[in-house]
Design goal:
The complex is a heterodimer. By secondary structure, chain A is mostly helical. Chain A is flat. Chain A has a single domain, classed as Four Helix Bundle (Hemerythrin (Met), subunit A). Chain A has six helices and no strands. The longest helix of chain A is centred in the C-terminal third of the chain and has 45 residues. The two termini of chain A are 32 Å apart. Chain B has one domain. Chain B contains ten helices and no strands. Chain B is globular and about 55 Å long. The chains are: A mainly alpha, B mainly alpha. Chains A and B meet through α4 and α5 of A and α7, α8, α9 and α10 of B.
Chain lengths: 235, 224
């Protein structure tokens, strides 16, 4: 009881910190950060896009590690963390793709191009959408956890191969559109600092969401166990 | 060595025998493959001038569809009437069961591809009998069979199994698709032959990686 109260206090504190950081981050992005000389205000989407993309990669790495631990040790905690990270990761990677599309249209003059990083990110989206779907399609919760773990491992080790196959494919079929920002140049120091603040903010958000989701998942498991026990007790 | 290989071949032989006695899968998959090829002709308006440019893509999209269709049936026969439980009760390692199933899928896909290739050669006007094309088909099909067998073992136990297999399989198999299309293009003379040194190692690396990982995770997939 005391422990759960302490946990609650910790989480609420984390949430408040996260909220304050988010407000500060928005202020920095829209008030402090200088407007890009070449591409203008649309460059500000970059402060959301980069943290979202990098953290989704982190999320899928967490899924990979959690999946291995689950398959070797069958620890329910590893499954809960992996599953929660996958859910948050899919949300983050979807947002990263959307913000990337918003950025690409004015800067590259195209919504989408099958460039290695974009393609790999899209494939990540597909793999981890499959990861989430298999959990629901499985005949029961325990099987679903195993299937998800298998996808979490196979999907992650496949990513470098996807990346290099598209790099080599691109070297044969060059990109039709090359924008002024196709090669990312060096950043202004103030822009870089704001990007780092943004990264920290989204990292906190990520940790908070995974924590919250994992504890919710634990409650779901407890609830399922209680319901099963009740059904056994009163036929 | 022989103790390890024998159970694999026994599992493969069981599948081959089952297919030989019914022959329903080869025929239906073959007809489906031909239909896809005809559909492509009208969808892309394949004229003689640009036929070789389209040929590798048409070939591998057809093979992928055909392979997915065939592999979605790989565990259906076993899961009916408790066949899979019987297979798992056999005193052999799960690795052997997986490799046996993967080998029978590999053989099955190769058979269908061998039957389809001459027809494609006629439709799309390219030389089928070249070692580089055969090597490409074998390398890519091995990867398809390994990952496809694992995912079909998962998909067969889920609801909506027909759609789960391609959803899981296609994203992971994308490097195979890219490598197979590019290497086939070189084999039929659309791309320079120098690209083999890039795509064959890619296909080989994919095969080797999943040859190690898939049997390991298969044990967890089929456990009760």
């Amino acid at each position: 009881m005391l422990q759960s109260v302490r946990q609650m206090n910790f989480k609420s504190g984390f949430l408040v910190l996260c909220g304050l950081m988010m407000v500060a981050d928005l202020w920095l992005i829209f008030q402090v950060a200088p407007t890009d000389a070449v591409i203008g205000d649309v460059q500000r989407v970059f402060y959301f896009h980069v943290p979202l993309a990098l953290l989704s990669f982190l999320a899928f790495f967490v899924v990979f590690v959690g999946s291995i631990i689950y398959l070797v040790k069958r620890s329910p905690a590893a499954d809960r963390i992996a599953y929660s990270a996958a859910e948050v990761g899919v949300v983050f990677v979807s947002l990263a793709l959307l913000t990337g599309i918003i950025w690409a249209r004015p800067v590259w003059n195209t919504w989408w191009t099958f460039e290695p990083r974009l393609t790999t990110t899209l494939i990540l989206w597909f793999i981890y959408a499959g990861y989430l779907m298999i959990g629901y399609a499985a005949p029961n919760r325990a099987k679903g956890a195993i299937y998800s773990a298998v996808i979490g491992i196979i999907g992650f080790i496949d990513v470098p191969i996807v990346y290099y196959s598209v790099v080599w494919w691109r070297s044969i079929h060059p990109a039709p559109v090359v924008g002024p920002m196709a090669e990312t140049g060096s950043l202004e120091p103030v822009m870089l600092n704001i990007l780092l603040v943004s990264m920290m903010t989204f990292l906190l958000l990520f940790i908070y969401l995974v924590m919250e989701r994992a504890s919710l998942r634990r409650s779901e498991d407890d609830f399922r166990a209680i319901r099963l026990a009740l059904r056994r007790a009163s036929p | 060595m022989i103790q390890f290989v024998r159970p694999i071949l026994v599992v493969t032989w069981k599948d081959i025998l089952l297919e030989w006695r019914s022959r329903d899968l080869v025929v239906s998959v073959l007809v489906f493959g031909l239909l896809v090829a005809v559909m492509f002709n009208f969808a892309l308006n394949v004229t003689p001038q640009r036929v070789t440019a389209f040929a590798p893509g048409i070939l591998w999209v057809t093979f992928t569809f055909v392979g997915t269709l065939a592999m979605s049936r790989a565990f259906v026969r076993d899961s009916e009437q408790g066949g899979l439980e019987g297979l798992l009760l056999a005193p052999v390692s799960r690795d052997a069961v997986f490799l046996g199933k993967a080998l029978s899928n590999f053989a099955f896909m190769l058979l269908v591809e061998t039957l389809l290739l001459p027809v494609f050669g006629v439709f799309l006007d390219f030389a089928v009998l070249s070692w580089s094309l055969i090597a490409t088909v074998a390398l890519a099909t091995l990867g398809f069979a390994l990952v496809g067998t694992l995912f079909s073992a998962i998909a067969v136990q889920t609801r909506s199994r027909e759609i789960m297999l391609p959803i899981l399989f296609f994203p992971v198999a994308l490097p195979l698709m890219i490598g197979a299309v590019e290497a086939s293009a070189a084999a039929i003379g659309v791309q320079p032959g120098s690209v083999f040194s890039r795509w064959w190692p890619l296909l080989g690396a994919f095969d080797a990686l999943f040859l190690v990982v898939c049997p390991w995770v298969f044990g967890a997939v089929v456990e009760e």
